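Model: You mentioned two targets. I'll fold them one after the other.
Researcher: Yes, keep them separate.
Model: Target one:
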Amino acid sequence: MSWTTLYISGRPGFKEAVMHKLHHTSRSYLPGAADSENDLLLYWIDNSIPLRDFKNEIGSKLIFRYRLRFHYSVPTETKDSTRLTLQEAALVKKMNTWEAEHYRHSA
């Protein structure tokens, strides 16, 4: 039997819920160490098991509640994901200009 590494990420609190759910399944999955820096949960699953079956074991309610995402390698998301794109920055500037023209900011 060969194993595939699978990383799971999601909203806060997802780790305990996923671990609890997978503990009570008929198949065996090998849990790995939870990465607190990237907020990831690691599992090794059998290569013969499709990802869809693994997701069915977790259940759609947990997947949607915690917005779970599944990765075969460590995701390379940057912590600066909250930065605005050029379009968003231009829109904010336009809104600020409009607000300055239509509202007085005086005491």
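Model: Target two:
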Amino acid sequence: MTKQQLIAKATEKNFKIEFSKDRFGNEIIGVNKNNNCYHWFQVIGEYLLFNHTYSMNTGKSNKGTLHGLRILNSLN
């Protein structure tokens, strides 16, 4: 998925989108599908890599590969 595709899909589904930078200065995009979690993607050129999901309820992060695939599939 490209950066533009993620923004278009999230906008189409009325998800909140956040733009930020990680501690190394790389661009990351967060998508909030509900009020409790942000799913963060690292921008590599025009493409995205799933980075982690952050729960605002528990303060925990989930970085699993299968979890990231489920998140990407849920955006399609």
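Researcher: Noted. Anything on target two?
Model: The longest strand covers residues 47-55.
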